[in-house]
Amino acid sequence: MEKLSNFINGQYVAPSSGRYLDNYEPATGQVYSLIPDSDAQDVEQAVLAAEAAFPAWSTMGIEGRAAILRKLSEGIEANMEAFVAAESKDNGKPLSLAQHVDIPRAVSNFHFFATAIEHFASESHQMEGVGLNYTTRKPIGVVGCISPWNLPLYLFSWKIAPALAAGNCVVAKPSEVTPYTAYMLGKIAKEAGLPDGVLNILHGTGPNVGDAIVKHPKIKAISFTGGTKTGEYIAQTAGPMFKKLSLELGGKNPNIIFADCDFKDALSTTIRSSFANQGQICLCGSRIFIERPIYEQFKEAFVAAMAKNKVSFPTDPEAKMGAVVSKPHMEKILSYIELAKEEGGTILCGGKRKILDGAHAEGYYIEPTIIEGLHYTCRTNQEEIFGPVVTITPFDTEEEALTMANSTQYGLAATVWTSDLKRAHRVADQVQAGIVWVNAWLVRDLRTPFGGVKASGVGREGGWEALRFFTEAKNVFIKY
Ligand code: NDP
User: Torsion angle of alpha carbons 259, 260, 265, 267, nearest 10°?
Assistant: First the structure.
């Protein structure tokens, strides 16, 4: 059985404990590799390596750093097929999704921040007749990046790329559930000429290695993407240590569809925004509010479309949906479907685990599930399920749609469908979310701020926001 290693100081090394964890293939439910069960000792080694690498990396100059990050981006691109296959196998997502979304986006993340750092500028503020302020932005030092399993390399690189571009050294941990492409990244980084110790990648569980990263006194900033509960714990732990914190957390995003929308576009996009990546994208719209005049028509077309939304093993070229990421996650999703029934919901389609044939019989497949008849305040409509499960609810007025949309603790993203320009602006303004799409979904410009309000997080990623997060501002005043 293949054993993965940590990547510390430019070398692949075994965990100091000698312990390993099983890594499952969601498509088959079988263990296919072993990953290091790292702990605080491994974090200590990684921090020492990062600390030693920091002076040279942070003073190399932006051209040098940008050139290496560009090579890193090209290195992933040159190994596209291997990364795509690994991501799909590790996560359960259809090969086509890894090919069109995950890995190209990891390539773009490194390329984008390599360029961004070359254009990043700091401010000066003149006080006429008094003096001049200028602000410098310096890298922080050693930073921690912790990412989830749903878009493994995509979200891992979304943090690492700006951290490195800004001149920091990184101790990073991918999710223990999807470690493989992060493991592959070490070799690519080395080949791209990234100096030893600049990027350290540790594998293992949140409570062991993640927690040790969060608590390490020499790690001065934590960029975390994951669940709200974990984010709360990290904030409680790192806050008193005065670490910089960026927290991208859970969501329960509304998708508000007005009767004057482009019906075909709203329908086809809603199919994606509900079930892409088996509903395991933090930006998926899991609560769909439909204006009453088109409610029945939309519902019928939406449910009918599920017949073509084939759930299959990830390498099936016809698969629109693959396996969910793990057995415990599958069980959690199925328990929410049971809860929805108890709360009085009607399952319009799906609602069950799907058993495939042969080698995939033990895989973690769930049919796309559409539920109606639930009150917007019930648990099914308030708690994050993070799977192929959506609810549909009719509304009569814009106010009612906004009340329901804004009723959860979350505020990550929202989608609005209308052809009324004034309404589009009004609703976009009033919906409580960090990201709003009007007549679209998941259109991403990497320069824009990315993040949520309320329990969906603190801080923003993307563009200058990420480079500001990964640098410390210092203001200098000079008297005339
Ligand atoms: P978790 O919060 O369980 O885990 C996220 C990462 O944190 C993993 O690497 C995990 O390790 C690690 N971790 C767990 N416990 C600790 C701890 N005590 N200290 C430090 N690190 C820890 O989230 P999931 O991986 O289950 O991801 C799904 C969640 O991520 C959903 O809530 C989703 O909404 C959210 N998400 C948010 C996004 C956003 O941009 N706002 C984007 C994508 C997802 P391990 O895997 O070993 O448990």
Answer: 0
232-247 pLDDT tens trace: 999 999 999 999 999 9
Is any ligand 1 atom within 6 A of the Cβ of residue 181? Answer: no
CATH code for the domain of 148? 3.40.605.10
Residue 456 alpha carbon to ligand 1 centre in Å: 12
Distance 167 CA to ligand 1 centre (A): 25
Indicate if 59 and 158 belong to the same structural domain. Answer: yes
Query: Of residues 25, 248, 461, 465, which has the active-site annotation?
Result: 248
Cβ neighbours around 117 below 10 Å, total: 22
- 69 CA distance to ligand 1 centroid (A)? 26
Domain span including residue 326: 253-445
Tens-digit pLDDT profile for residues 146-193? 999 999 999 999 999 999 999 999 999 999 999 999 999 999 999 999
Whether 450 is covered by a domain: the verdict is: no
282 assigned to active site? yes
Both 270 and 171 in one domain: the answer is: no
451 domain-assigned: no
Give one DSSP letter per residue of 381-409, joined into a string.
HHS---SSEEEEEEESSHHHHHHHHTTSS
